[in-house]
Amino acid sequence: MFRKLTLSILFSLLSTSVLYAEVEFLAEIQNGIASFSSTVLDGPQSPSSKYSRPNTHAPAHLMGAHLHQPNEKMVEYKYMNMSMSGLQQGTDVLSVSEIFSQYPTLMVLPKKMNMEMHMMHYMVGWKEDITLYVMPTWVVNTMEVTPYMDNGMGMKMAMPSQRRTNSGFGDLPFGALWKIASDKEKRTEWLLNIGLSAPTGDIDGKTTSPMNPSMEVEFPYPMRLGTGSWMARPGITYTKYTDDTSLGLQLQTNIALSTGAGEYAASDKYRLSGWFSKIISDDRTWAYTLRIEGLWVSDYRGVDPQLEVMEMGGSTMAEMNPAANGAFQGGRSLNFGYGIIKSLSDGSRVNLEITHPVYQNVNGIQMGTGSSVAVSWSKAY
Ligand SMILES: [Cu+2]
C-alpha cells in the first residue's frame, strides 16, 4: 500500500516536471523559430515589407523547400513543359535502321513528345514548424509517332507521322512539410517532406492504333495521365541563407507503394538537387538560381496486360512500340538548371527555370529528354 502510494506520488511529480520542462522547451523553440523565420524570410535589409525576398523559394522545378507561418496560405500556379525527341539506347543516339536490326518486331517509333503540366499548388501553415500542401495537376501529353510498314522484302517503310494527345487530371500530390531542425545563428534549416500522391490520373485512356485507325488501343505508358498507384513522395531539404544568397540541397523521391489497378507499378524516381541563388538587384527583388540535378528512374514493375500480354496480329503492343514496354522506362540523367525569381510589389513572386540534360542514359529504347521549362506565380497571404 505504502509502496504504491510512494510510486504514484513520485510518478505524478515526475510527470508534472516533465510537462513543465516540455512546455518551456517548446516555447523557447517556437520563439527561436519565430525570430529565425522572420530574419530568414524577410531579410534584415528588405526594401519594404510589401516585397518578399525572392530567393526564399527554390528554383521553379522544385517544391517542398519552404514553410509558411501558422495560418499563412500560399497559392501558386505552375506550368511545366518538357520535350523529348530522337531515339537512344543507353547514351547512344540510334538511327531507325539500327533500331530495326536490333528489334525487328517494332512497327511504331516515337518521334517527339511534349509533357505539359498545369499545377495549382496550395500551401497552408498549420503549426510553427509544419506546413500542409496539395497540388492538383492538369496534364497534357502529346506524342508524335511514325508507323512503319513491311514492304515484303524485309524492309520497313516509314508512313506519315501521327500526333496523339491525352489530357486530364493527373495524380494528386499532397502532404506535410516538417521543419526537423534549424539553426538561428547559421541560418540553416532541414525540412522533411511527408508526401503522398493519390492515383487520380486516368491510366485507361484509349486512342486509335497508329497502324490501324479502325482499332482502339490503350495509350502507351508515357502518355498516361497518372501512375495508377498510390505513391510515397518522401523528401528532405536543407537550406542555408546569407543576406544575399541561398543554398539548397534536396532529395525528393516518388515511389510506387504497390502495383495499381493496371497490374503494374510506374517508375520509382529519385531526384537529388543542389542549388545556389543570389539576389542581384539593388532593390532586392531579382535573384538568379543555378541548379544541378541527378535523376534516377526505375523501370516499371509488373506489366499492363493490355500492352504487354494481349496480342494483335501475333505481337503485343510492347513488341511493336517501345513506349508500351515497361522495361524501357527508366534511366539516369544529370541536368543543369538556370532560373530567375522576381518579387512583385503585391508580395507575389514569379519564378522561372529552364533545365537541360548534360548526361542521359536510358534503359532500352527511349526518346532523349530535351529542355524543360517551369514557370510559376505564387502569392502568400
Ligand atoms: Cu509556399
Strand and helix map with partners:
Blueprint: H1 2-42, E1 73-90, E2 92-93, H2 96-102, E3 108-127, E4 130-134, E5 137-150, E6 156-158, E7 162-169, E8 172-183, E9 188-198, E10 206-208, E11 216-218, E12 231-232, E13 235-241, E14 245-256, E15 264-265, E16 269-279, E17 286-297, E18 301-302, H3 305-308, E19 311-312, E20 315-316, H4 317-320, E21 331-343, E22 349-380
Antiparallel strand pairs: 1-2, 1-3, 1-22, 3-4, 3-5, 4-8, 5-6, 5-7, 8-9, 9-12, 9-13, 10-11, 12-14, 13-14, 14-16, 15-18, 16-17, 17-21, 19-20, 21-22
The protein binds copper (II) ion.
Copper (II) ion binds near residues 66 and 68.
General description of the model:
The strands form 4 sheets. This protein has a 16-stranded antiparallel sheet that branches. A two-stranded antiparallel sheet has the order 10-11. Strands 15-18 form a two-stranded antiparallel ribbon. 35% of the residues are buried. With 381 residues, the chain is mainly beta. The chain has helices spanning 2-42, 96-102, 305-308, 317-320, and strands at 73-90, 92-93, 108-127, 130-134, 137-150, 156-158, 162-169, 172-183, 188-198, 206-208, 216-218, 231-232, 235-241, 245-256, 264-265, 269-279, 286-297, 301-302, 311-312, 315-316, 331-343, 349-380. The longest helix has 41 residues, at 2-42. It starts with a helix and ends with a strand. The radius of gyration is 25 Å and the shape is elongated. The chain folds into 2 domains: 1-42; 50-380, Porin (Beta Barrel). The model is unreliable at 1-7 and 9-48 (pLDDT under 50). It has 4 helices and 22 strands.
